[in-house]
């Protein structure tokens, strides 16, 4: 039996990249001889994180259209044509059996060329509201793996499969890590901890919400693990280092997310699909602040899927600078509410998503 050859395309954010790596790892668990090649977008997070995970990646010179008038938009048709041609070249040279698209700029050209050349492909749609690219590509997809109910509004029911979103394997084993995490981050074991993260790139609203309540955070005698994201880190450190107590730990990026989740008594986060899947698995109380700067306001839809089950608290982005930190500090004192949120969010976890998707990909190889 010849080794299966599988291309995984997409990225742009950690929410796309980490599920993609989880799928690749699950495939290798099932078929150690599998040859896996990633295709990403030049300059995006996947070009760093995928090689760190031990996989080869090829970059396409592709960017999305900007919402406002931009000179970059004039280059889009040329970039798209170049990416389509390079995708065809990659598929032909690698001789792929199956392609997998996880979303992001690079996913579209690669899957489109796979569809033209009759290479079967799987779409892994992470959000509760799909983008236009996946809607178009869905027509020829062999399987569409989704994380939310009711997706037959957007995709053919015959190819839909409710799998959940893959998450990083280390998050499956955070029980018992609290003491180690306290030492790792230099925290006080007797104080409650809020973990705030706007993802790998950061979130301006979350960062400004914290900066607006310096005195209240210091007075509350809580600890804060604060992942600012790379866009904001240097400015925040410069402005905040003299203002906060030593219990506020500021990071550009936290690679040991298992420890951050393990030590948190309350988590504040955006509502990207990958983040929500991780939070369900971790089972900690969470306040979600959906980003308004996404297509079709899909982060609010993602968040509401939890809120309707009483599994999360929602704060609108427009209100966050005034409401977020006071609400978090108040919630941290409400033991019964914290326990309820934790219990309800755990019910929504789907820990075996990567393995289920890997099985579907390998079935297509056999076909």
Structural summary, described in words:
There is one protein chain. The protein has helices at residues 14-30, 46-52, 71-94, 107-116, 132-137, 178-185, 204-211, 214-220, 233-240, 257-263, 273-282, 298-307, 317-331, 335-346, 353-366; strands at 5-9, 35-41, 56-60, 98-101, 121-125, 143-146, 160-162, 193-197, 223-227, 248-251, 266-269, 286-288, 313-314. It has 367 residues and is α/β, with parallel strands linked by helices. It has 2 domains: 5-167 and 351-366, 3-Layer(aba) Sandwich (Rossmann fold); 170-346, Glycogen Phosphorylase B (Rossmann fold). The chain has a 7-stranded parallel β-sheet, sandwiched between helices. The model has no long low-confidence stretch (mean pLDDT 92).
Terminus-to-terminus distance: 13 Å
Residues in β-strands, percent: 15-25%
CATH T-level topology of the largest domain: Rossmann fold
The CATH architecture designation of the largest domain is 3-Layer(aba) Sandwich
Structural class: alpha/beta
User: What is the ordering of alpha helices and beta strands?
Assistant: EHEHEHEHEHEEHEHHEHEHEHEHEHHH
Mean pLDDT across the residues is 92
**Which consecutive residue ranges, at least 5 long each, have pLDDT under 50?**
none
Number of strands: 13
Number of separate domains: 2
Q: Major sheet, described briefly?
A: 7 strands, parallel
> What overall geometry do the principal axes of the alpha carbons give?
globular
Strand order of the largest sheet: 3-2-1-4-5-6-7
SSE diagram, text form:
Blueprint: E1 5-9, H1 14-30, E2 35-41, H2 46-52, E3 56-60, H3 71-94, E4 98-101, H4 107-116, E5 121-125, H5 132-137, E6 143-146, E7 160-162, H6 178-185, E8 193-197, H7 204-211, H8 214-220, E9 223-227, H9 233-240, E10 248-251, H10 257-263, E11 266-269, H11 273-282, E12 286-288, H12 298-307, E13 313-314, H13 317-331, H14 335-346, H15 353-366
Helix pairs in contact: 1-15, 3-4, 6-10, 7-13
